[in-house]
Amino acid sequence: MSKVINGINIPNIPWEEAPEGYELPLWRYSKNPITKRNPIKNVERVFNSALVPFNGEFIGVFRCDGVDQVPHLRVGHSKDGYSIQLEEDVVHFLTLDGKKIPDAHWGYDPRVIKIEDEYYVVWCDDIADSPTLGIAKTKDFKTFYKYDAPFIPNNRNGVLFPRKINGKYYMLSRPSDTDHTPFGDIYLSESKDMEYWGKHRCIQKSHFSTWNNLKLGGGPAPIEIEEGWLVLIHGVNQTCSGYIYSAGAMILDRDDPSKILYRCQNVILGPSELYETTGFVPNVVFPTSVLVDQASGKMAIYYGCADTCTSIAFTTVDRLVNYIKENDSINK
């Protein structure tokens, strides 16, 4: 049995049992999607967002595409992990020493990672009109302190590990270009202080399976388990009718996350429901956050659907790890 290490108990984790006789590794919430179009004034769509436990409830940073279709970040609250209440104002940032920063033109696809007593937000930011990663920290989701950009443009899909490893912070990312990136591999970078990043290494190239024959990137914050780091990823398949985004998974070494121990050959969740195949960008399943209850091993995975809405899929650590091992493409 796979156990979560250094996790927390979430007794009120959103949960729904798998349908009877269901054999796939993840199953969808029966009332998906959990966000609808035009949820509040001036917001058209909410997707590719991040939710974490907070004071017995849930809070997060959400990608909100406005009625002008420009993406920006807003804080969202939830008492049960299903219903999301978005704040009326966008997220504003201060420098580390408390000075105001002009709002960026856009920001999107945030991840939220708790490290010790602070929450870190990593998102795709607007730096000199080019996409690259932004990092900010907060303790209360009211005041956000922003670091200088960790990497030069262009880069997307950054996610921090939830604790230091051998005294250093680690981050996964997907270097890209200024457009819709017809390439992408997963890189690992490290830092002693969250400000200066280096030792950038490609740890997994795309095209190890057809579902990621175009590009590959990180998803939610890695989960520490007995075997190592359980990492959800996204991959893109280039087909004759366009891109297809699906979710996959792998397990990294706990002390050396550049080493992949297991890599699932198969998709763990791909677009098949109408809300995943039809929308602003069709055929997209894009995981960005996961709640894990250490006591039970239950997992609630939040993912963006068709760049239009947010949904939840469920599994357990045991079930997912077993599926990865049974379909491993590293140790054949």
Describe this structure in words.
By secondary structure, the protein is mainly beta. It has a single domain (38-326), classed as Tachylectin-2, Chain A (5 Propeller), CATH 2.115.10. The chain is 4% helix and 46% strand. The protein contains two helices and 22 strands. The protein has helices spanning 274-277, 317-326; strands at residues 27-28, 43-54, 57-66, 71-78, 85-86, 93-95, 107-115, 118-127, 130-138, 144-146, 155-160, 169-175, 186-191, 197-204, 215-218, 223-225, 228-239, 242-252, 260-263, 285-292, 298-305, 309-316. It has a five-stranded mixed sheet, with no helix packed on it. A hairpin with a 2-residue loop joins β8 (118-127) and β9. It starts with 26 loop residues before the first strand and ends in a 6-residue tail after the last helix. The mean pLDDT is 96.
Structure characteristics:
332 residues, mainly beta, Tachylectin-2, Chain A, 5-stranded antiparallel beta sheet
| CA(first)-CA(last) distance | 22 Å
Compute the gyration radius: what is it? 18 Å
CATH superfamily membership: Glycosyl hydrolase domain, family 43
Number of distinct beta strands: 22
How many domains comprise the coordinates?
1
What is the beta-strand fraction? over 45%
Q: Which strand order does the major sheet show?
A: 6-10-9-8-7
Question: Pairing-aware structural class of the strands and helices?
Answer: mainly beta
Helical content, roughly? Answer: under 10%
Topology:
Blueprint: E1 27-28, E2 43-54, E3 57-66, E4 71-78, E5 85-86, E6 93-95, E7 107-115, E8 118-127, E9 130-138, E10 144-146, E11 155-160, E12 169-175, E13 186-191, E14 197-204, E15 215-218, E16 223-225, E17 228-239, E18 242-252, E19 260-263, H1 274-277, E20 285-292, E21 298-305, E22 309-316, H2 317-326
Parallel strand pairs: 6-10
Antiparallel strand pairs: 1-22, 2-3, 3-4, 4-5, 7-8, 8-9, 9-10, 11-12, 12-13, 13-14, 15-17, 16-17, 17-18, 18-19, 20-21, 21-22
